[in-house]
Amino acid sequence: MTYEDELEVSINSLEKLNNFIEVSDIEEQKLKEVVKRHPMCITQYYMSLIDPNDPHDPIRKMIVPSIEELDASGIYDTSGECENTKLVGLQHKYSQTVLILATNRCAAYCRYCFRKRLVGLPNKEIINKFSEAANYINDNKEINNVLISGGDPFVLPTQLIEEFLELLSPISHLNFIRFGTRVPVTFPGRILGDPDLLEVLESHSKKNRRIYIVTHFNHPREITNKSTDAIDRLIRCGLIISNQAVLLKGVNDNADTLAELQNKLVSIGVNPYYVFQCRPVKRVKRHFQVSLYRGYKLIENAKAMLNGQSKRFRYVMSHRTGKIEIIGITPNEEHFIFKYHQAKHPSKIGRVFRRRLDKVAGWLDDLEPVFSSPVCVTDTMEELNA
């Protein structure tokens, strides 16, 4: 069976879901409205990780539609992606990095997805001509890396992935190319069952220009024999694997779970990269977001259980103004301390700033600015109004 055949038998309707998980008639009526707005898709493999008898199963919460998605709190574009779009399907927010939206499809549709506005839905945000993206990158010499994302680019045909790499390879000022993919987690058969894909990736991952895979394990139970084998195949092809998790209520909002996840990632050769604060996405915010205060405490408690390798990740917010690291809380618990790890405006990179601490706030925009404090950090009016 090819990977395309496997995707064809994915669970993509409530009728099919009922073969694996019991859904009451009342709940099913409400879920019909949910999946009409945001489609469901679950691979057979990922469904096998769910305990059907546990309504609070963390894998289930991430992938099975919930009536909590009827809560329309939040916004769909939390990071300002539309305002940073330079060509259809190409975003250029940070000077050195270009993001390409290669597809609106994934092997599995995560219910917390920050691109919920487009994944699995007809839209006009996906790249039409990859050659135009390559020309844009070639003309802008400050760009030194490309992130190919979506959706999930690894659901695309291998031939198309090869064409992307062939177009990008001649661009001399690119230091590396990244693929953002959750396929090793939700659909490892795509990697294990397609030697052509591995051959293409290996042929383009050279000693002086590596291909990076940024994958997305959120819970230690996602690290299975099959997902580990998929990661191992990629590593053996010369690829470098990083992980960006999302802090999710009811999934991994527990210090022991987070510590176990990071330790297991290091053991299989995956580098901890980011733990993201869940974005206030419409139909996601109330369902999955943990407060910044609780999130910071959880992260610090988890780090106390980690070694130097497994605690290398940063706890960050992907805000419209940049990637903001949550670096601390003042001893009197009056202020959060933040730092621009990356910024839309380069002058902000590395700057430290504060906001008044609010124990229930989940996002920077929910916090009041601070205009004076004895804490020695570089607050300016520009930063405070970020």
Structure, explained:
- It is a single chain.
- The protein has 386 residues and is α/β, with parallel strands linked by helices.
- The chain folds into 3 domains: 3-70, no CATH class; 82-316, TIM Barrel; 317-386, no CATH class.
- It is 30% helix and 18% strand.
- It contains 15 helices and 12 strands.
- It has a 12-stranded mixed β-sheet with strand order 1-2-3-4-5-6-7-8-9-10-11-12.
- Mean pLDDT is 95; it is low at 373-386.
Sum up the structure in keywords:
disordered C terminus, 12-stranded mixed beta sheet, 12 strands, TIM Barrel, alpha/beta, 15 helices, 3 domains, 30% helix, 386 residues
Instruction: Tell me the count of domains.
Output: 3
| Total beta-strand segments | 12
CATH topology of the largest domain: TIM Barrel
Biggest sheet layout: 12 strands, mixed
Shape: globular
Percentage beta strand: 15-25%
Q: What is the CATH C-level name of the largest domain?
A: Alpha Beta
Average per-residue pLDDT, rounded, comes to 95
How do the helices and strands line up, and which of them pair or pack?
Elements: H1 3-8, H2 14-17, H3 25-37, H4 44-47, H5 58-63, E1 85-87, E2 90-91, E3 97-101, H6 130-139, E4 145-149, H7 158-168, E5 176-180, H8 183-186, H9 189-192, H10 195-204, E6 211-215, H11 225-236, E7 240-247, H12 255-267, E8 271-277, H13 285-288, H14 292-303, E9 314-319, E10 322-329, E11 335-343, E12 352-356, H15 381-384
Helix pairs in contact: 7-10, 12-14
